[in-house]
Specification:
By secondary structure, the chain is an all-alpha fold. It is 70% helix and 2% strand. It is built from nine helices and two strands; from the N terminus they run H-H-E-E-H-H-H-H-H-H-H.
């Protein structure tokens, strides 16, 4: 970048800053504070002030210094606007990295499985975020790297035994439900057999009555079997 362009970018930025600060920062408010995810956006300032984006990032130390000073001032004047917004992945990584330093482990539930709900609360993110494409790969690696906790007063063997007990209890309940269902089926089958027997008896009686009527018509006599 030429010296002329560097000076132009610096002057444009200074003039824009002076302009947006007039009348109680009216112009700055009108442009939406040039904020993005809680910080002053270099891209938005670049467009608003007609300053080269490279100058704001790497090419012009003087421009970068002025921008940084203005960003601090804007944050001081509008603290509610300029609050750094972290992504769910960033929140997760900050929390887990702090665990690695102090030896904290991933939380588990009563069955020894990773407790996603507690983990989400600790990280300050929604539970569903832990199963997202951006966090899931990190989570798997971190669990292997850091490990999981063991519930206070319970050994791994105790938790496995507890899980087995619950599984056996569920199996017994399923067996009981199956026995009840089988008993109902047996009852229905008995009713079906009874109805089939009554149906045959009615059919036989109907056949006998029909035969009696036919004989009476043919012989002029009446009898009943």
């Amino acid at each position: 970048m030429s010296q002329k362009d560097a000076e132009k970018n610096l002057n444009n930025l200074k003039e824009w800053i002076a302009l947006v600060k007039e009348n109680d920062w009216e112009k700055f408010k009108e442009c939406g504070y040039c904020v993005y995810q809680g910080v002053l956006s270099k891209g938005k300032v670049s467009k608003a002030a007609d300053v080269g984006l490279k100058s704001l990032k790497t090419d012009n130390p003087a421009v970068i210094t002025v921008f940084d000073e203005f960003a601090i001032e804007a944050k001081t004047v509008f603290p509610d606007v300029f609050q750094l917004t972290l992504s769910n992945k960033e929140k997760y990584q900050i929390e887990i990295n702090s665990w690695a330093k102090v030896g904290k482990k991933f939380p588990i539930d009563e069955f020894g499985n990773l407790d996603y709900k507690r983990l989400a609360v600790l990280c300050g993110i929604p539970t569903r975020a832990l199963t997202s494409a951006s966090i899931t790969p990190c989570l798997k690696k971190d669990v292997l790297r850091i490990g999981t906790e063991v519930s206070k007063g319970q050994s791994i063997e105790h938790m496995m035994e507890k899980k087995l007990t619950v599984t056996s209890s569920e199996l017994n309940r399923y067996r009981k439900d199956l026995a009840i269902a089988q008993e109902k089926i047996d009852g229905l089958q008995e009713q079906i057999l009874k109805l089939q027997k009554e149906n045959r008896q009615l059919k036989n009686k109907s056949d006998e009555q029909e035969e009696s009527l036919t004989y009476m018509l043919e012989s002029g006599r009446r009898f009943s079997l």
